[in-house]
Amino acid sequence: MPSRVFRYLFSATVPMEEVESSLLLAVLGVECLHGETEVQLNAAHFLDPERRTCVVDADSEVGRNLNKLLAGFLRREFGQNQFTVRRIKAPIPSRTEKSQRAG
């Protein structure tokens, strides 16, 4: 089965604060469709401003809707040439894993 995890990579000209705002807006939109609990359980995502990346797990319907909204918002705000999005095989890192790697 193909991976349904997507990694967004942003050009150096894209303000990562604006990417974070777009991600939060996409999460809010998905909460309106599916409810806060469903989003918490089924819309895993991870934003890494230092690496200029965002990862979205689109394995569930909730995650797929988050991915669609995010891609649409980013394309509208920054243009399709300011970021790339690719399917990846790696899982989304948890906050604990990131803390362990940094420490």
Describe the structure.
The chain is globular, with a radius of gyration of 13 Å. The model is unreliable at 96-103 (pLDDT under 50). The chain is of the alpha+beta class and 103 residues long. Helix 1 (16-34) crosses helix 2 (36-42) and helix 1 runs antiparallel to helix 3. The chain has a four-stranded antiparallel beta sheet with strand order 2-3-1-4, covered by helices on one side. It has a single domain, classed as 2-Layer Sandwich (Alpha-Beta Plaits). A hairpin with a 4-residue loop joins strand 2 (45-48) and strand 3 (53-57). Helices cover 50% and strands 20% of the residues. It has four helices and four strands.
Distance between the termini: 35 Å
Instruction: Kindly state the percentage of residues in helix.
Output: 40-55%
The CATH first-level class comes to: Alpha Beta
Shape: globular
CATH architecture: 2-Layer Sandwich
Class by helix and strand content?
alpha+beta
Examine the coordinates and then state which fold CATH places here, giving the name of the CATH topology.
Alpha-Beta Plaits
Which terms would index this structure?
103 residues, 20% strand, 4-stranded antiparallel sheet, Alpha-Beta Plaits, disordered C terminus, alpha+beta, 4 helices
Would you spell out the secondary-structure blueprint of this structure?
Blueprint: E1 5-10, H1 16-34, H2 36-42, E2 45-48, E3 53-57, H3 61-78, E4 83-88, H4 95-102
Antiparallel strand pairs: 1-3, 1-4, 2-3
Helix pairs in contact: 1-2, 1-3
